[in-house]
DNA sequence: GCCGTTTTCGGCCCGACTGTTTTCAGTCG
């Protein structure tokens, strides 16, 4: 049975939910949640680690008890603790906790007093007016619960980073024009460059909070006002995106920015660190007793805690605080470090622009080289090239290079990795290319072993340069295929191949945790646009954001290398 | 359930908003 780190994380997450409903020790609940987070993001295979006799208690938040439970889950496929909870509580009740407005106390009350066990039963109880009569509930609460439950049934929606960026930019521009507003910044997961965001957190410095929250809730894209006070307000835009606004004073701006950037796990760890040195940290500043000793800037907050300023993309409580304490934070790759792009298409297949137009757009985007990597013949719907078609493009690129200045075009292909792991074009034509990008575009459903062997075999080709969008996931559309990425990364190191971090907003694949694993193995990562039009080079910034979340430095990224260095790497 | 420059026991982050129980519990971020 396939059992991944995410499966174990999900079990611990459900245990936390159910324990919460049982009103268990909140710190025990927190321990399970923390373990779920750590395991869910962990880049190596827990099964393998156990098989190798490695000590899991070295992982943060994992002690003897949880190690034993992980072992139990790996060996038996079950967790007795979770089975016990399932015996005591209705099977689907944890689901109710994920409805906004419902916490453990209310879920317990609804279950005990009304026998509500599912979201559907919750909706019925609300429509029948049975909830409002419960102690602690009222009409308004009942209505809000019904609305939230209906939204939940229609499924929670997260927005892709690039989509959220469009709404964020409009809202920020609007708020900057409001009288008395000095500064506006988007915090939250958006600032941390997460691949999707659930809502936007906007931070404002302004003299009079009332005027700002009033302007905020009357923004013309607002569909619904969820809350409105002097210092904070929440709305839902017509597109369904929730936006939270906080108004802060200048002396608290850094502390508030830090606080609302999160992540929650990072904040908790920071607070713990503050307490350890006799300080108190909140969104207004860092305090010794009643005296504020920092808070105007983020740097000041981190400094008094004995830490270097931590880039937002790292703030996930994955070791960044310890690194900041020791002065060992990575010098994260920046967009301007990228000198080239190794994955792009033209009109020859499914792109929208000519070779020359793509070249000039890449140069305008500050790049020194661009590999054209059309689809291969197997991808018929994209008009994939056969050997003859590719040969014509090779000639065309060579001719174009003679006329271009400031940009060098590289000859490439995005060749399909067929089901048996062979490549979709013969060696003879691949040998004429600078860059061979291998990609899986079919049979996403292969079992883990076969999918893994398929990719490993493709990497055996001496022409293979890098693996495109390594997990195949498409946000909101397709889950990653089942592949042992640890083995892929190890083989990439042995074969001298690279992995792509596809910067397209719907992919952002390689995932951040695998970026870390690649870095640890010394496998270079190429941040590629997969551009299909001249506008798509802008997407590189999202790829860089993801790379930064994966702790990558410029030296870890293949296409930060100057052309000559890259060409030498490609030849060896 | 985890963890240790204050600890192998006793801690474990903090404030705003909402609705309702008129002094606060529940939820959220």
TrEMBL record:
Known catalytic reactions: 2'-deoxyribonucleotide-(2'-deoxyribose 5'-phosphate)-2'-deoxyribonucleotide-DNA = a 3'-end 2'-deoxyribonucleotide-(2,3-dehydro-2,3-deoxyribose 5'-phosphate)-DNA + a 5'-end 5'-phospho-2'-deoxyribonucleoside-DNA + H(+); DNA(n) + a 2'-deoxyribonucleoside 5'-triphosphate = DNA(n+1) + diphosphate; a 5'-end 2'-deoxyribose-2'-deoxyribonucleotide-DNA = (2E,4S)-4-hydroxypenten-2-al-5-phosphate + a 5'-end 5'-phospho-2'-deoxyribonucleoside-DNA + H(+)
E.C. number: 2.7.7.7, 4.2.99.18
Keywords, ordered alphabetically: DNA damage, DNA repair, DNA replication, DNA synthesis, DNA-directed DNA polymerase, Exonuclease, Hydrolase, Methylation, Nuclease, Nucleotidyltransferase, Sodium, Transferase, Ubl conjugation
SMART domains registered for this protein in UniProt: HhH1, POLIIIAc, POLXc
Every DNA-directed DNA polymerase X domain range: 3-316
Molecular function (Gene Ontology), one example: exonuclease activity
Domain of life of the native organism: Bacteria
Domain Polymerase/histidinol phosphatase N-terminal: 340-419
Cofactor list: Mg(2+)
Domain called Helix-hairpin-helix DNA-binding motif class: residue spans: 54-73, 94-113, 129-148
Annotated compartments: Cytoplasm
Its job: Repair polymerase that plays a key role in base-excision repair. During this process, the damaged base is excised by specific DNA glycosylases, the DNA backbone is nicked at the abasic site by an apurinic/apyrimidic (AP) endonuclease, and POLB removes 5'-deoxyribose-phosphate from the preincised AP site acting as a 5'-deoxyribose-phosphate lyase (5'-dRP lyase); through its DNA polymerase activity, it adds one nucleotide to the 3' end of the arising single-nucleotide gap.
Annotated protein name in UniProt: DNA polymerase beta
Species lineage: Bacteria, Pseudomonadati, Pseudomonadota, Betaproteobacteria, Rhodocyclales
Gene expressing this chain: polX
């Amino acid at each position: 049975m396939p059992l991944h780190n995410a499966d174990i994380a999900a079990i611990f997450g459900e245990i936390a939910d159910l324990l919460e409903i049982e009103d268990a020790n909140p710190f025990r609940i927190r321990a399970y949640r923390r373990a779920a987070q750590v395991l869910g993001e962990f880049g190596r295979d827990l099964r393998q680690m156990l098989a190798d006799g490695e000590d899991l208690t070295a992982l943060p938040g994992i002690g003897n008890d949880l190690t034993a439970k992980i072992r139990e889950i790996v060996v038996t496929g079950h967790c007795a603790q979770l089975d016990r909870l399932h015996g005591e509580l209705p099977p689907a009740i944890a689901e109710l906790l994920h409805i906004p407005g419902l916490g453990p106390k209310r879920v317990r009350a609804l279950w005990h007093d009304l026998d509500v066990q599912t979201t559907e039963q919750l909706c019925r109880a609300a429509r029948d007016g049975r909830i409002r009569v419960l102690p602690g509930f009222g009409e308004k609460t009942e209505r809000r619960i019904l609305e939230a439950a209906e939204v939940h049934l229609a499924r929670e929606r997260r927005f892709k980073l690039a989509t959220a960026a469009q709404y964020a930019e409009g809202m920020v521009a609007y708020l900057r024009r409001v009288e008395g507003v000095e500064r506006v910044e988007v915090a939250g997961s958006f600032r941390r460059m997460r691949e999707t965001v659930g809502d936007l957190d906007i931070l404002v410095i302004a003299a009079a909070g009332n005027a700002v929250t009033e302007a905020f809730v009357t923004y013309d894209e607002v569909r619904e006002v969820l809350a409105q006070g002097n210092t904070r307000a929440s709305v839902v835009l017509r597109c369904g995106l929730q936006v939270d606004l906080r108004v802060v004073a200048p002396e608290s701006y850094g502390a508030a920015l830090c606080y609302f950037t999160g992540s929650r796990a990072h904040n908790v760890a920071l607070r713990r660190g503050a307490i350890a040195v006799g300080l108190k940290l909140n969104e207004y500043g860092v305090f010794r007793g009643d005296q504020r000793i920092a808070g105007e800037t983020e740097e000041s907050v981190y400094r008094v805690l004995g830490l270097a300023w931590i880039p937002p993309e790292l703030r996930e409580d994955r070791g960044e605080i310890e690194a900041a304490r020791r002065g060992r934070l990575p010098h994260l790759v920046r967009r301007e470090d990228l000198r080239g792009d190794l994955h792009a298409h033209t009109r020859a297949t499914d792109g929208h622009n000519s070779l020359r137009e793509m070249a000039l757009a890449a140069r305008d985007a500050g790049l020194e080289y661009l590999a054209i990597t059309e689809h291969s013949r197997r991808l018929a719907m994209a008009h994939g090239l056969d050997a003859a078609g590719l040969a014509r493009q090779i000639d065309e690129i060579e001719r174009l290079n003679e006329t271009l200045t400031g940009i060098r075009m590289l000859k490439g292909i995005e060749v399909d990795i067929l089901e048996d792991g062979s490549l979709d074009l013969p060696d003879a034509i691949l040998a004429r290319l600078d860059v061979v990008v291998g990609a899986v575009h079919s049979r996403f459903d292969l079992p883990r072993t076969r999918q893994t062997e398929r990719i490993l075999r493709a990497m055996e080709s001496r022409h293979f340069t890098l693996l495109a969008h390594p997990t195949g996931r498409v946000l909101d559309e397709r889950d990653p295929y089942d592949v042992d990425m640890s083995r892929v990364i190890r083989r990439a190191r042995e074969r001298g191949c690279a992995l792509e971090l596809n910067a397209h907003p719907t992919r952002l694949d390689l995932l951040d945790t695998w970026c870390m694993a690649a870095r640890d193995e010394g496998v270079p990562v190429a941040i590629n646009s997969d551009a299909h039009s001249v506008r798509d080079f802008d997407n590189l910034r999202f790829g860089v954001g993801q790379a930064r979340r994966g702790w990558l430095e410029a030296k870890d990224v293949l296409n930060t290398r100057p052309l000559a260095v890259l060409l030498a790497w490609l030849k060896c």
